[in-house]
């Protein structure tokens, strides 16, 4: 498999977020991963302390220039995630547009990280950039419910709402949308959350079809960091292998997440000791230990095709 | 296996040198790798063009501070390679000293990158820093012949010279020394180069033993970048697995190198086309494609024990 991904995300010295979360699993699955580190921090910002440096939009451009001057700016995928800087994000858009000119088949996988549980955790001025510039060039997006509502201006209270929101997101650009988590009630009870996916295809005869899926995902009683980054990377991998079968791609992706999270939470509790809440260092994803699950995830979450 | 490595090396967006070369193989072998990127460049400097940014000694210190403030400055190994900046290298030394105080069993694997084939390709004033500050802290050292000669002030013209130089390097600090390549003639002919290794071990009864080994490594007709970084990382992994058996550790390490290089050269020649010399971009190591060889390298090079005491 000759497949090259350009991933523009954070780097942390210790732990698994951003490029640290995305690169190893993609490489384990045989993807060539070129990575531009948008920041270099000691660790993610959920620890008591964090220190490091950020890349400016200009420095990003300089790195891209190097790639371009060597004529190696040919990518099959671009992957982006958490950003705090509008000028950086705008430079990313310029780069994606140029890469799409170089390879019209390029697939841009975008996690439009804006916030969760009703509030934004990036500067507000990123919102119009995502809405007007980033999402229109994205091919696959992985918003959570809050981000999907923000981008479309529509609230999700029912599955029907979610389907409409995903259709609105399709109309903005991406053919594949996965709402990674929602507050919708699961048919399996309150130990589960609901995720939804939607993929638009154009048939050979030119007509359009949409496959929509619903996944019941076991809840975990812990706050993880880096899981969204792992999710987007694994969705990239599994939609690459199943480009016309969102159901299977989602089953694989959500299953990998489950295995990594389970392994992580077991280990974290072991380290913390009985009755103690694990700390952020203890909750770092057990990424290298999950290599076999990443390579070949046993399916533990089933997706149901809806409407 | 709970083993955490701190690797302080370059990052390139594209390709496999520095941390890009070391991290994936170590992770594949189950090591936790924390990585501080000393630079971020678009690609290595053997391409027609390269662009990017360097980390200053101060910025390195800031990153380490973050790790320290969170009390997660506990490592089993440190790995360093190519550096161009004396103040950066000196900051690395300070960090290692502190990490060794936090964990006295820490093993520092150091590739003392200074040059090759008779010429330095880093600034000259790095030599005294390596000689006086870095090498004394190192536990495992992977110099080539030129670097070994520079550090000891002795030339290597025979196997006997190589043995003496490795012993001089032991005296400077590291208990494990691997001369990754030399110009010594191989008994297998001129399609092979000679590498040597030496390991001093302290037995429980307090007696020192020393194992020296020699390997004939098939030469490859191409210039690779990043292979030294891969070598040091894999030597870390295989000496971890075989801490008292340098012969086994070197056989694994050199064999991994062989598989990766073979796969790379085949692919590069395919990409370049018949009769054309592959470009630097085409010669990038086929790292992700070599995962199975990294996990479990078939032994293709045998090391001979040339001296034990």
From TrEMBL, chain A:
Catalytic reaction(s) noted? pyridoxine + ATP = pyridoxine 5'-phosphate + ADP + H(+); pyridoxal + ATP = pyridoxal 5'-phosphate + ADP + H(+); pyridoxamine + ATP = pyridoxamine 5'-phosphate + ADP + H(+)
CDD domains assigned: pyridoxal_pyridoxamine_kinase
Q: What UniProt keywords are attached to this protein's entry?
A: Acetylation, ATP-binding, Cytoplasm, Kinase, Magnesium, Metal-binding, Nucleotide-binding, Phosphoprotein, Sodium, Transferase
What's a Gene Ontology MF term here? pyridoxal kinase activity
Per the record, the GO terms for biological process are:
pyridoxal 5'-phosphate salvage
Source organism superkingdom:
Eukaryota
Check the record and name the Pfam families matching this protein. Answer: Phos_pyr_kin
Enzyme Commission number, as recorded:
2.7.1.35
Listed under GO cellular component are: cytosol
- Where would you find this protein in the cell? Cytoplasm, Cytosol
Enumerate the cofactors the protein uses. Zn(2+); Mg(2+)
Q: What InterPro entries does the entry give?
A: PM/HMP-P_kinase-1 (IPR013749), PyrdxlKinase (IPR004625), Ribokinase-like (IPR029056)
Q: In which pathway does it act?
A: Cofactor metabolism; pyridoxal 5'-phosphate salvage; pyridoxal 5'-phosphate from pyridoxal: step 1/1; Cofactor metabolism; pyridoxal 5'-phosphate salvage; pyridoxine 5'-phosphate from pyridoxine: step 1/1; Cofactor metabolism; pyridoxal 5'-phosphate salvage; pyridoxamine 5'-phosphate from pyridoxamine: step 1/1
Q: Which residues form the Pyridoxamine kinase/Phosphomethylpyrimidine kinase domain?
A: 80-269
Give yes or no: UniProt keyword Transmembrane.
no
UniProt-listed NCBIfam families: pyridox_kin
- What is the recorded function of this protein according to its Swiss-Prot or TrEMBL entry? Catalyzes the phosphorylation of the dietary vitamin B6 vitamers pyridoxal (PL), pyridoxine (PN) and pyridoxamine (PM) to form pyridoxal 5'-phosphate (PLP), pyridoxine 5'-phosphate (PNP) and pyridoxamine 5'-phosphate (PMP), respectively. PLP is the active form of vitamin B6, and acts as a cofactor for over 140 different enzymatic reactions.
Protein family (similarity comment): Belongs to the pyridoxine kinase family.
Q: How does this protein assemble? A: Homodimer.
Q: By its UniProt entry, which PANTHER family does this protein fall under?
A: PYRIDOXAL KINASE
Protein name in the entry: Pyridoxal kinase
In its UniProt entry, the species of origin is given as: Amphiprion percula
From TrEMBL, chain B:
Give a GO molecular function annotation for the protein.
Answer: ATP binding
The UniProt record lists the EC number as 2.7.1.35
Its primary localisation, in coarse terms, equals: cytoplasm
A biological process (GO) of this protein is: pyridoxal 5'-phosphate salvage
Q: Which domain of life is it from?
A: Eukaryota
Q: Please give the cofactor(s) recorded in the UniProt entry for this protein.
A: Mg(2+); Zn(2+)
| Annotated Pfam families | Phos_pyr_kin
The protein's matches in InterPro entries, at most eight in alphabetical order, are given as: PM/HMP-P_kinase-1, PyrdxlKinase, Ribokinase-like
Gene Ontology cellular component annotations, sorted alphabetically: cytosol
Tell me where it resides. Cytoplasm, Cytosol
Which terms are listed as keywords in the entry? Acetylation, ATP-binding, Cytoplasm, Kinase, Magnesium, Metal-binding, Nucleotide-binding, Phosphoprotein, Sodium, Transferase
Q: Pyridoxamine kinase/Phosphomethylpyrimidine kinase domain location, by residue?
A: 82-268
Chemical reaction(s) catalysed: pyridoxamine + ATP = pyridoxamine 5'-phosphate + ADP + H(+); pyridoxal + ATP = pyridoxal 5'-phosphate + ADP + H(+); pyridoxine + ATP = pyridoxine 5'-phosphate + ADP + H(+)
Q: In which pathway does it act?
A: Cofactor metabolism; pyridoxal 5'-phosphate salvage; pyridoxine 5'-phosphate from pyridoxine: step 1/1; Cofactor metabolism; pyridoxal 5'-phosphate salvage; pyridoxamine 5'-phosphate from pyridoxamine: step 1/1; Cofactor metabolism; pyridoxal 5'-phosphate salvage; pyridoxal 5'-phosphate from pyridoxal: step 1/1
Family the entry assigns: Belongs to the pyridoxine kinase family.
Quaternary structure and partners: Homodimer.
Q: What does this protein do?
A: Catalyzes the phosphorylation of the dietary vitamin B6 vitamers pyridoxal (PL), pyridoxine (PN) and pyridoxamine (PM) to form pyridoxal 5'-phosphate (PLP), pyridoxine 5'-phosphate (PNP) and pyridoxamine 5'-phosphate (PMP), respectively. PLP is the active form of vitamin B6, and acts as a cofactor for over 140 different enzymatic reactions.
Protein name per UniProt: Pyridoxal kinase
Organism in which the protein naturally occurs: Parambassis ranga
